[in-house]
Amino acid sequence: MEDITSLKDLFHHQLKDIYNAEQQLIKALPTMAEYSFNKELKKTFNHHFEETLAQKQRLDEIGESLGFELTGKTCNAMQGLIEEAEAFISKKPAPDILDAGIIAFAQRIEHFEIAAYETAVRYAESLGYNEAAKNLQLTVAFWQQILR
After folding, report:
1. Domain residue limits, the chain
2. Residue environment code for 54-93, b if the CB has 16+ CB neighbours within 10 A, otherwise e
3. Pick from 142, 148, 119: which is nearest to 50 by CA?
4. Separation of alpha carbons 139 and 126, rounded Å
5. Per residue in 127-139, is it b (16+ CB within 10 Å) or e — as a string?
6. Angle at Cα 110 formed by Cα 91 and Cα 43, nearest 5°?
7. Fewest 10 Å CB contacts: which of 18, 28, 40, 125?
8. Is the pTM of this model over 0.70?
9. What is the CA radius of gyration of the chain?
10. C-beta separation of 29 from 52 below 8 A
11. Using CB atoms within 10 A of its CB, is residue 103 exposed (0-12), middle (13-18) or buried (19+)?
12. Helix residue spans in 1-147 (DSSP H)
């Protein structure tokens, strides 16, 4: 882990972590959709994939506007969540159990993302990065609406 000696450093670290989490999800979501049996669930995962691409794009824009490099870090938490989901899928349970399990893993992933984004929003606000906070809040608002 790089040296973190200021809130700006911590914010940068948080953005790098979120960025990598989004990259990992871009790779994992098509698999979750593929193994889902329920058509609405497949549709939801495909929509989630599109939203994840938009979230990554917003992060690219934030990083560029602040002069932050966002690559070079692995989000171990997201990696672990995805590995658990993949291990579950590989056991090939009955279709209804598979869909229920995939939903459970997706909810864990999204709650992790919401917590990470909410933290980043607060850091951005504290640092006076108002445009970054506004853009990060778009992701929080989207997931809060979906999970209600």
Report:
1. 7-146
2. ebbebbeebbeebebebeebebebbeebbeebeebbeeee
3. 142
4. 18
5. bebeebbebbbeb
6. 70
7. 40
8. yes
9. 16
10. yes
11. middle
12. 7-35, 39-66, 76-90, 95-127, 130-146
Overall average pLDDT of the 87-97 stretch: 93
Cα–Cα distance for residue pair 148/143, rounded to 1 Å: 9
Say if residues 132 and 65 touch (Cβ distance below 8 Å).
yes
CA torsion, ordered 60, 64, 67, 73, to nearest 10 deg: 20
Q: How far apart are CA 38 and CA 44, in angstroms?
A: 10
Mean pLDDT, residues 5-15 taken together: 94
Token digits for 14?
Answer: 């948080």
Q: What is the pLDDT of residues 16-44, one digit of tens each?
A: 999 999 999 999 999 988 888 889 888 98
Give the residue with greater pLDDT, 145 vs 95. 95
CATH code for the structural domain at 7-146? 1.20.1260.10
Inform me whether the pLDDT recorded for 146 exceeds 90.
no
